[in-house]
């Protein structure tokens, strides 16, 4: 088989994986959210865009936008429970970046949006995923913690919030039993700098990042890393391994 033929074969496999699956994306009106929506829809998925902004008018929708828009606000995650129940995959991608400002207000806002609202959605989706029932199916969660989880992002509040949710997701994964992990698949998105409103000087194209995320999602690893920085590919697995050892120590001790 030629290289071109192999590439087409891999793309067809990817399309079959995501066809007719229901995908929910928070931050769907942002740069990466838009590109993920476009990429998933091109593979036959039904995309629900979750946004804090006013939902776009139907006339503004196209094959490159979510099939359905849902407006929500941090602190009201419980209102999304019905929507979350219908999803096969939830991508937590919303967030803010206060920049280099050193003030309590910016930090509180970053913690609420980038970490605490994520955690509330994770808890709700976990409960749904592990519930027993006739229509029970395997559900998947992707959490965008970004490269800022382990490296500087020149934004202290952003870094603190991302490191917090990064550790919380590691904690959640470690707390699951082997059987629970079969029904509730948890992955982190560790992304390098891509061009967006939050980062206008990012060096990666958001469309490329979205495609790489989906392509690499088929791997068994619990991290999906997309970055030009080779150090991240070394540091992130080591960080996750050490965290797992740490959390497993307490699991064994508490038995």
Q: Which structural class do the helices and strands define?
A: alpha/beta
Radius of gyration: 18 Å
The CATH homologous superfamily corresponds to NAD(P)-binding Rossmann-like Domain
How do the strands line up in the largest sheet? Answer: 3-2-1-4-5-6-7
The helix/strand order is HEHEEHEHEHHEHEH
Q: How many strand elements?
A: 7
Q: Which segments are poorly predicted (pLDDT under 50) over 5 or more consecutive residues?
A: none
Tell me which CATH architecture applies here. 3-Layer(aba) Sandwich
* Fraction of residues in helix: 40-55%
Molecular structure report:
This protein is α/β, with parallel strands linked by helices. It has one domain: Rossmann fold. Helix content is 47%, strand content 15%. The protein has helices spanning 3-18, 31-42, 81-85, 104-130, 156-175, 178-183, 206-216, 230-253; strands at residues 22-26, 46-51, 68-71, 89-92, 139-144, 184-191, 223-226. Strands 3-2-1-4-5-6-7 form a seven-stranded parallel beta sheet, sandwiched between helices. Helix 2 packs across helix 7 and helix 5 crosses helix 8. The longest helix has 27 residues, at 104-130.
Quick synopsis:
The chain is an alpha/beta fold.
Question: Characteristics of this structure?
Answer:
255 residues, alpha/beta, Rossmann fold, 7-stranded parallel beta sheet, 47% helix, globular
